[in-house]
Specification:
The protein is 75% helix and 0% strand. By secondary structure, the protein is mainly alpha-helical. Helix 13 packs antiparallel against helix 14 and helix 13 runs parallel beside helix 15. The radius of gyration is 23 Å and the shape is elongated.
Length: 326
């Protein structure tokens, strides 16, 4: 009768009794108290922490984002383990898990990226139960990209295609397409890559860019890397000297410099490639992004640029030492 609205209960004592019998927080039935105030404060604090951590990561301070998110995730995980599974706290837990996973995926070296994928995967598991397609799409998008970075490219494509199906806002579709293009390029499937990058470009032309993944700068870098991945270095070389525009975040400038170096090596412009790689090494060490330095190491070794490879490995050692102290 209460659920259908045929009966109303207004006294606090009865509401507390019902909450206790049903095993739910009293604030759900409109009763406030010290525990409920603490719960609401936790939600507000947690939401702010996740938002600020995302701003920090996107501004090039991913280590600081991780340091902010760890305590929040630990507290929410402990709360969940105690059986407190209110919808609001579940949403916050999923948001914190995906933010932590993406931040870890930014600062961890390649051999440890699987841990970032595990965190984003746990966020997907929660999002599946929340009946929120936009948030579910976000978790799938980020999990797909972390899977790709960890070397699980085919499962990443499946997650990213599912994310695209659930996305409706242009910026969300653009984000899913950006990561999907990257994954398809790594698989070396030229036809599917071309189809996806064309869809990305048309969507961007029809909508003003917004966010890290829906920008002309991002499109160019993904296009160049996809052309390399699908064995079309000469075509990539035709675009390499075009102005890249302005990056949406510091890490994208570093990513672009590494990709530019790879293209320049492929078209045998090694002096220009060395300059691009040197820029990337300096910036990646400053921003503490070991994964990007590891890309430089591989490219330099493959191109027999021994001095540059030694510089990159020295920077990687310094960065690993600094991160170990965090």
């Amino acid at each position: 009768m209460l659920e259908t609205g045929r009966r109303a209960i207004t006294d606090v004592t009865t509401r507390r009794y019902l909450a206790d019998r049903l095993g739910i927080p009293a604030h759900i039935l409109g009763v406030t108290g010290a525990d409920d105030a603490e719960y609401r404060a936790m939600l507000q604090f947690g939401d702010s922490t996740v938002r600020l951590a995302e701003i920090a990561r996107q501004s090039g301070y991913a280590v600081e984002a991780v340091n902010e998110l760890w305590p929040l995730v630990a507290r929410l995980e402990a709360r969940a383990a105690e059986g407190h599974m209110e919808r609001d706290s579940l949403i916050l837990l999923a948001q914190a898990r995906v933010a932590l996973g993406v931040s870890l995926g930014t600062v961890l070296p390649e051999e440890r990226l699987s841990s970032a994928a595990r965190w984003t995967g746990q966020a997907v598991a929660v999002a599946e139960k929340l009946d929120d397609p936009a948030f579910h799409a976000l978790t799938l998008r980020m999990h797909g990209n972390e899977l790709r970075k960890a070397g699980h490219v085919r499962p990443a494509v499946a997650r990213l295609q599912q994310s695209l199906e659930l996305s409706f806002a242009p910026a969300d579709q653009g984000g899913s397409l950006a990561f999907l293009c990257r994954a398809l390029g790594e698989l070396g499937v030229a036809t599917q890559f071309d189809r996806a990058i064309d869809r990305y470009r048309r969507l961007l032309d029809a909508n003003a860019g917004s966010g890290l993944l829906f920008q002309p700068f991002t499109l160019r870098e993904i296009h160049l890397r996809g052309l390399l991945g699908t064995e079309r270095a000469a075509e990539a070389g035709q675009h390499i000297h075009e102005s890249p525009g302005v990056p949406a975040a510091p890490q994208w400038q570093i990513i672009e410099r590494v990709t530019a170096g790879e293209v320049l090596v492929a078209i045998n412009e090694k002096p220009s490639a060395a300059a691009a790689f040197s820029d990337a090494i300096a910036l990646a060490e400053l921003r503490r992004l070991p994964h990007q330095i590891q890309r430089v190491v591989r490219a330099a070794i493959g191109a027999e640029m021994r001095e540059l490879a030694a510089d990159a490995m020295a920077a990687l050692d310094r960065l690993r030492s600094a991160l170990a102290d965090q």
